[in-house]
Amino acid sequence: MSDESTEVGLPVDRNRLPERFENPGLPEHHARLTDTDPAAEKRAARIITGLFGLSALGTIGALVAYFAVPPGETVASIRLSTLLIGLGLAVAFGAAGIAAIHWSKALMNDHEKVEYRHPQASDRATREEAVAMLKEGAEDTNLSRRGALKGAMISALALAPLGFAVPLIGSVGGDWNVSKFRHTMWKQGLRLTHDPSGEPIKASDVTVGSAVHVIPDGLSEVEDVLEEKAKAVVLLIRMDPRDLKEADDRKDWSYQGIVAYSKICTHVGCPVALYEQQTHHLLCPCHQSTFDIADGAKVVFGPADRPLPQLPITVDDEGYLVAQSDFHEPIGPSFWERLK
Amino acid sequence: MSTSTPAASAAAATADYLDQRTGIATAIKGFARKIFPDHWSFLLGEIALFSFIILLATGTFLALFFVPSMDEVTYTGPLAAMDGVQMSRAFASTLDLSFEVTGGLLMRQIHHWAALVFMAAIVTHMMRVFFTGAFRKPREINWLVGFTLMVLGLAAGFSGYSLPDDVLSGNGLRITEGITKGVPIIGTYMSYFLFGGEFPGTHIIPRLFTVHILLVPGLILALIGLHLFLVVLHKHTQFPGGGRTEKNVVGYPIFPVYMAKQAGFFLIVFGVLALMGATMTINPVWNYGPYDPSPVSAGAQPDWYMLFLEGALRLTPGFFEVVIAGFTIPLNVIIPAMIVPVALLGPLALYPFIEAWATGDKREHHLADRPRNAPVRTALGVSMLTGFTVLILAGSNDLIATHFHMSINAITWTFRILVFVLPVVTFWATKRICLGLQRKDRELVLHGHETGQIVRFEDGEYIEVHRPLDEQERWIRVQHDPRRPLPLLPAEDARGVRRPGYRSDALRAKVSRFFYADRVEPVTPAELAAAQAHGAHDQLTAGEHDETPAIGSSSPASVHQG
Asked: Which of A250, B99, B238, B369 could tie B37 with a disulfide, CB 3.0–4.6 Å?
């Protein structure tokens, strides 16, 4: 656009117009129905009174429910007690709230008022005064030429929290023996048993296509049951040996198509639980990492990177499944020194 | 003031007693008739405040019955399905307070719903502040306080969710342990720090209990105090309108209008949460059973505010895990669990400072922006929300798969692509929509409302009659300051000497162009006069483009040609 094209023949002189529009000021106040019609005002007052009354009834209802409807012994009776007390509370609070807001909107003075703002910053004189006070205070410390004193003070105060922090941090991690992450309670000859019954598992009882949740024999007798269980849970799966692809160094880790893998996902440690018989895929329900049990539990999809650790198994004299050793690598999620 | 009735004279005596000891009249003088502006969106933060109060009340109720202990006990309570089951005392006491304490389950459900509403209110309140530019000077510090409150809200929610020690929360803790172990160098030690030894140990529930009922709520309470103090100090922002300026605040006084409205709104929030607690079952831990490291249930999800992390964990492919010099660095966990939240939330926390730097704007702002008038800011906000939403959906990919009978792999791959593509698309679309709305505003101001009345002139020409905007309607659409890219001074001065600081100026000019190169400026009185004179405005809306003067920018000198 050019100035000529807009100025030709204009009845208004553009130079006399302001650069920007001007604020038109507060809009005109519109009276509410309750301001102009006494009947409407009375009606509003009646509604508000009624709502407060309803609120009181709600409270009475909640109290009656509390005393008259005990929670009982079943989930259904608990739900009924919860529902009735809750509805009473909801009416008691809700109706009183609506009443208060209706009152403020319909009956209270609704003329808008104006308040002025002031700049957030202090004025120059105040600032100068503040700076002068700080300077004066700093001089009062009589520290300006005593570097050693200042250094000593800062060092002392910086060191002081150590007396608190070191005991706290030192104690909070128990024995700090993080090498426990490397081992589970599996060892040579330890029987595989059903989770949670603890019954030993006969190899001949495991049918092709089945998956069994396994814990080590004697788990319930150890001191830290949950900690050991969290590391030692295993999933046992039997498939047709012809479907099984095994690495050369692991050929003797399985027994007649029965393989045992750690149940703890190598992603962030959820128990891997969903086994699909047809594809031999094992899916972690937390983040959907998918492992191919027929192929060394390699990751075929999802956020995990490493295969599930395999537990080498065999059978004992009585035909029960036993471990050959512990896992050959730490189970579960990756950590910094995992391979060290 | 009359002291004729007994009540009034008692009130006067009390007031006198208090004032002589505290000088309370000064506070009342300052506060009683303080003005607050009115807008529905200003209530979002109050929902957060009120749900927090409800959380404190119901939480106190629960704490009277909950036992934060991981000692093993055998259940003997009324719930037949759990009879004789081994469980931690924490889980058993959760069952007891739900089934044997009258009203206990109601309080638990209100508490959990209030926690979800608390976080939702914080997030929507933050969106309101972001999209209206209410974080600008002098409110940047309060933005950071609010941001910290949101992070503390996450911590409060997470620590509380874990307390009942059921299968779901236990697996959540196990995931936390797996993520913690993934931290390079000190991961295993951090895991011991949290759990006091190996997972699960016997310390984590008592520790989370202290975090949940003392540390986090204490910090939240202190920061809410600071947050509200700063709101009072700054006075609330207001939306533009006739009579509303940067130098005033227009609205209603605290006493009585806001006291009634706030008290009423608090009661309504409590009422709604009570209704939710009464009618909607949440976290029925008795269906899940006590924590056991072996079982897990499919379709399990964290509370909604944690879903974006869950989604990020699900999307990041495994091959990111690397081994360097024998040390394992599980980037497939570190990226989603540590880098993604920092990458999403970090810029959000720093946004007020980034925008102030890019615009060189050092003035105080008390008038809220209409989101359309800050197209790039609005687009950035929508873009971030889009990324957040895709991650939330990705955190539910298994439920999407089972509900819609779709392949989980296909869904995951779709989200892996969408999480990068959609934020770009929504950025572009939002920016265009904002510019379009601004053009519509110009059009309305210049042409007025369409009336649907067609008039025929003597010479046969037909026109539609337009009704001009009244001055209040017009003011809303023309009140904002035009924002233009910062001009860049040349690299060398008149004598050919290189100017120090040119590099950072050039970067700033670039960012500033990103914000404001595409723009539509508000109509000026001259443009309106021209339009009303003889439709010459058609020439004024010639086009809006990067390299040409923006719509309505009447002075070509103001446009920086990079």
From this structure: B238
